[in-house]
Amino acid sequence: MSQKLNLDKLDYQIIQVMMENAEISYADLGKKLFVSGGTIHVRIKKLQEYGIVTGSRLNINTKALGFDVITFVGIYLEKSSMYEDVATELKKIPEIVRLNYTTGTYSMFAEIVCKDIRQLKHVLHDELQNIKGIERTETLISLEESFNRNVLVLDEEEIN
């Protein structure tokens, strides 16, 4: 991103409202924020150019679709210099939905979503353990997700 970020209160308001409801129309968002739908359109385009808004995603309830096992896997690398090669290989495993390069105990931390324990065993044993550069892993099974939210960029008073 070569452009200098030049965001104002309206930009932050747009981001906050759209994180809560990405389906809101530009016209309705404009009414809520007391500007025109055209202004919203221009601002969204600017946020996309800055790389702040990178698309929209449909949030799904994975449990309702039969994905009953959510795990977090700490990955120890043989050498930290192997990170990019290992990350490239991990990206090929569709059950891995999130991957972070970390400090601390693990070199990498992955979130894996599976239909059942058998599928998890396959991912851990047959896929992860065969990737060159992974020394070992530590798996934590999630019993329940208490909440999942976006970062708050403005408080409610600043939005209204």
From TrEMBL:
<dbReference type="InterPro" id="IPR036388">
    <property type="entry name" value="WH-like_DNA-bd_sf"/>
</dbReference>
<protein>
    <submittedName>
        <fullName>Transcriptional regulator, AsnC family</fullName>
    </submittedName>
</protein>
<keyword id="KW-0238">DNA-binding</keyword>
<dbReference type="InterPro" id="IPR019888">
    <property type="entry name" value="Tscrpt_reg_AsnC-like"/>
</dbReference>
<dbReference type="GO" id="GO:0043200">
    <property type="term" value="P:response to amino acid"/>
</dbReference>
<keyword id="KW-0805">Transcription regulation</keyword>
<dbReference type="InterPro" id="IPR036390">
    <property type="entry name" value="WH_DNA-bd_sf"/>
</dbReference>
<dbReference type="InterPro" id="IPR011008">
    <property type="entry name" value="Dimeric_a/b-barrel"/>
</dbReference>
<dbReference type="Pfam" id="PF13412">
    <property type="entry name" value="HTH_24"/>
</dbReference>
<dbReference type="InterPro" id="IPR000485">
    <property type="entry name" value="AsnC-type_HTH_dom"/>
</dbReference>
<dbReference type="InterPro" id="IPR019887">
    <property type="entry name" value="Tscrpt_reg_AsnC/Lrp_C"/>
</dbReference>
<dbReference type="Pfam" id="PF01037">
    <property type="entry name" value="AsnC_trans_reg"/>
</dbReference>
<dbReference type="GO" id="GO:0043565">
    <property type="term" value="F:sequence-specific DNA binding"/>
</dbReference>
<keyword id="KW-0804">Transcription</keyword>
<dbReference type="GO" id="GO:0005829">
    <property type="term" value="C:cytosol"/>
</dbReference>
<feature type="domain" description="HTH asnC-type">
    <location>
        <begin position="7"/>
        <end position="68"/>
    </location>
</feature>
